[in-house]
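=== RUN LOG ===
request id: a7f3
mode: sequence -> structure
chains: 1
length: 111
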Amino acid sequence: MKKVVNIEMLRQARENLKKIARDHPELTNLSGEAAQRLREGVFNVTVDESKSTFSLEEAAEILGVHSETLRRWIKAGKLEAAKTGKQYRISRIDLQTLWKTMGGGTLLGDK
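=== RESULT ===
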């Protein structure tokens, strides 16, 4: 079963986690294994794999970078994107190409 990612909900969850980390610094001193389990449980995002293009914000969530980073990469020619009005759309293929040039492996479950 595929799940659609609610980007706004992810942003809110990330902000809530930052607040928790500020209020409870003892949680930031987890062992490597415990921290990894926490990250996997919180940041594992299931993307609708039938999509062929992504908004700038969705692509940023997938790659784990800020949307402004992607804007800079687009302007520098490191990432190809189509501009539709004031927004960018990034193809699955262009995301995969960028990911592989950065040394990444499998992205979005593709083989």
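=== NOTES ===
The helical segments are 7-23, 32-43, 56-63, 67-76, 92-101.
The chain has two domains: 1-47, 51-105.
=== END ===
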